Amino acid sequence: MPRFALLLAAGLLACAAQAQATSFVMTTDALAGASVGVSESTSDLSSSFGDDKIVLAARDDAASFVASDGAIRGARLEAALRHIRERAPQLDADDRQLARAILVL
């Protein structure tokens, strides 16, 4: 009986390890996919707005916006988002992506 219990425990451990590895891979893939849009927005923003005073002044508001999951929208962030969209209408990014890109500048 002890040998059967050991084999059963080893089998359960192997199943648990496989499930955990699969979960990690799926989480990593999801995060990587989400970061692609942010990195594309960041590269476009940094090349165009890296020294823009309106955008740089919005960094604190952008941090609050990201940290609050969009609940806090400061006036400087609103001005920066409007400014970015007027000067670069080709950017296909939502407010969260742009706020994260502002933080990277």
Shape descriptor reads elongated
Number of helices: 5
SSE pattern, N- to C-terminal: HHHHH
Catalogue the unreliable spans: 21-25
Number of strands: 0
The percent range for helix content is over 70%
Rg value: 22 Å
Distance between the termini: 64 Å
Keywords: Signal
Protein name: Holliday junction resolvasome, helicase subunit
Pfam families: DUF2388
Organism: Geopseudomonas guangdongensis
Describe this structure in words.
The protein is mainly α. The protein has one domain (2-104). The chain is built from five helices and no strands. Residues 1-21 form the signal peptide. Pfam families: DUF2388. This is Holliday junction resolvasome, helicase subunit.
List the topology elements.
Blueprint: H1 2-49, H2 53-56, H3 59-67, H4 75-87, H5 95-104
What are the salient characteristics of this protein?
105 residues, mainly alpha, 5 helices, single chain
Write a compact overview of the structure shown:
Helix content is 80%, strand content 0%. The protein is mainly alpha-helical and 105 residues long.
